[in-house]
Amino acid sequence: MNSFDNDDDVFTGKDHTPLREDAFQMSPNEKVAKIESLFGEIMQTLGLDMTDDSLKDSPKRVAKMYVNEIFGGLLPENKPSISTFKNSYKYRQMLVEKDITVYSFCEHHFLPIIGKAHVAYISNGEVIGLSKINRLVDYYAKRPQVQERLTMQIVSALKEALGTQDVACIIDAKHLCVNCRGIKDTASSTITAELSGIFRTNPITRQEFLHYVGIHSKLD
């Protein structure tokens, strides 16, 4: 078995993250050392004085941040373990976790994507701890991303964990590649939605979800 087989969602399906098959051959520490060297070259090329006290350790700081923090979702070992519980109290309505903070990075310009995710599911006999939903969102956000893929990855992971098709996710986020460069439009945001199961097929259920998260007027 190859090491990347342990995280099939990274490599397979329409929502895969585009990684090479040798993506995990280097250890995190080796990646930090490599990125530190390369980012130092970028700073040198920009003409920065790398002997300055404020700058000399920046390549190492950036490298550690990339590998261990903002792109930590590229490490399969960071995927949160998802324990489910029997829905013993027979709750049959949707559960909505709204306003989950999203911090990600656009894979086109490597600038931040900042927004909120709204996630819902209807139990098919299993329920999940609330914090696990937030952790799943955070895990998939910590990759170079496009917002459409991120939305789909969250839904796919929850469908697999809960054994149900009845899952929905909406993300409303600002992209700094739009806000601070190019057109420099600071007012706009981007909304993406992935609706599965009854959220897609039943208009009443869909409208109920949109009402709960308070953005129904934007998607009607």
TrEMBL record:
PROSITE patterns: GTP_CYCLOHYDROL_1_1 (PS00859), GTP_CYCLOHYDROL_1_2 (PS00860). Pathway: Cofactor biosynthesis; 7,8-dihydroneopterin triphosphate biosynthesis; 7,8-dihydroneopterin triphosphate from GTP: step 1/1. One of its GO terms (molecular function) is GTP cyclohydrolase I activity. Keywords: GTP-binding, Hydrolase, Metal-binding, Nucleotide-binding, One-carbon metabolism, Zinc. Its EC number is 3.5.4.16. Residues 36-212 form the GTP cyclohydrolase I domain. Pfam families: GTP_cyclohydroI (PF01227). It is an enzyme of class 3 (hydrolase). Zn(2+) binds at C106, H109, C177. One of its GO terms (biological process) is tetrahydrobiopterin biosynthetic process. It catalyses: GTP + H2O = 7,8-dihydroneopterin 3'-triphosphate + formate + H(+). HAMAP family: FolE (MF_00223). Homopolymer. Belongs to the GTP cyclohydrolase I family. This is GTP cyclohydrolase 1. The gene is folE.
